[in-house]
Amino acid sequence: MIVGVPSEIKVDEDRVGLLPVVARTLVEAGHTVLVEAGAGVGAGVADVDYIEAGASLVTTADEVFAEAELIVKVKEPQAEELSRIREGQVVFTYFHFAASAELTRGFMDTGAIAIAYETVRDNDGRLPLLIPMSEIAGRMAVQEGAKYLEKPQGGRGVLLAGLPGVAPADVVIVGAGVVGLSSAKIAAGMGASVHLVDIDIHALRHAEMILPANVSTYMSNSYNLERLVPAADLLICAVLVAGALAPRLITRPMVQSMKTGAVIVDVAVDQGGSVETMRITTHSEPVFVEEGVLHCGIANLPGGVPRTATIALNNATHPYVLKLANQGWEKACRADRGLAYGLNIIRGKVTHRGVADATVTDFHPLAFDTLSTAAAQASD
Q1: Assigned domain for 125 exists
Q2: Would you call 285 exposed, middle or buried from its count of C-beta atoms within 10 A (0-12, 13-18, 19+)?
Q3: CA distances (Å), 313 to each of 149, 227, 318, 320, in order?
Q4: Are residues 163 and 269 in the same domain?
Q5: Same domain, yes or no, for 60 and 139?
Q6: Phi and psi of 151, rounded to 5°?
């Protein structure tokens, strides 16, 4: 199989979909790897590293998309990339279709197969390709929040840790999943007073067992949120519904109740966001002020640390890329139901319920045991 690795062209995105170590494994298995020249530079990977791994360099993205049967990326295809994607081509990347009906319909029009990192599951129902980026995003959310709480950045002028005789900052984290636990770990380690909120009592029980004593846990409901949010110096929203839009939990009146110069970081913004007043921002222009509160909605937060993020992502995607190349997408997905959960669109048909509901498109359920039949029906 020919596996293609284009440069990422989304704003402020320097990660690369495939590292030389994965390229070598693919080449040793008899596959061809085409890498766009310069694709890895932002993540600290030189072209010569790919050549030494046995990959072939091509000059343009057009060549990658024209020749590859499997495209391995990091972020969702941009408009100019959609025009390059061919019917029947497999694209393996983060899509976050639920947040964009335009992207969903644009990809449907290509006739290609979309396998989304964010909805692939393992045998325990976890999201193995989302977890590493969630861990990074959770850690970075605290870093970003701490930075923008500084007065020169427009914040309240509050130090997360406090110091003797000065109370620490109050950090409210909504969601006790991977992102939330990662945020709580860092915020607590910095000495903040952390308030962790979730709808799942078992998640809160687990959090209490592994986190230090300066983390308090609360059930997520409107009563608790209306008490906690006004007191927050830093509010981190870390709510995920796999493949679907994030629930809108923080209303404008809640934001209006916050202190002037407080900071909100919405990690779920790439899935639509949990804050009514939030919009997507970039690493170049990371914050805006609404209702006197600094809003940070960087959709590709891990892209700020492309070296770390690329290694972490490739550690997770490596075995799946090899499966897809060795077996083809149909056989690989039929043999691995968790990988099949990553199938979001097959030849113009949406096969993920969350995506269909969020983008108001017809849902075509996937018959796991007869995947080849389902795929054939989807091409009708």
Answers
A1: no
A2: exposed
A3: 30, 37, 8, 11
A4: yes
A5: no
A6: -60, -45
Same-domain check for residues 269 and 356: no
- Residue range 13-56, pLDDT digits in tens: 999 999 999 999 999 999 999 999 999 999 999 999 999 999 99
Q: Residue with structure tokens 């090899």?
A: 322
pLDDT at 245: 82
Element (H, E) at 34: strand 32-36
pLDDT tens track for 209-258: 999 999 999 999 999 999 999 999 999 999 987 777 888 999 999 999 99
For residue 323, the surrounding DSSP H or E stretch is: helix 306-335
Is 140 a member of any domain?
yes
Q: Decide: 108 and 348 in contact? Cβ < 8 Å.
A: yes
Any idea what the CATH number is for the domain that residue 347 is in? 3.40.50.720
Q: How many domains is the chain partitioned into structurally?
A: 2
- Nearest Cα neighbor of 177 from 144, 146, 131 is 131
Domain of 293, in residue numbers? 131-304
Q: Are 120 and 127 in contact (CB under 8 A)?
A: yes
Q: Does residue 372 register a pLDDT over 70? A: no
Of the residues 275, 304, 333, the one at which a domain ends: 304
Residue at 195: amino acid letter: H
Please report which residue ranges of 1-130 form alpha helices under DSSP H: 20-28, 47-52, 61-67, 79-82, 101-110
pLDDT at 378 over 80: no
pLDDT higher than 90, residue 373: no
Catalytic site residues?
A: 96, 270
Last residue of a domain, one of 258, 277, 304: 304
Give 283-335 pLDDT, tens digit per residue: 999 999 999 999 999 999 999 999 999 999 999 999 999 999 999 999 999 99
C-beta of residue 338 within 8 angstroms of C-beta of residue 123: yes
pTM summary value? 0.92
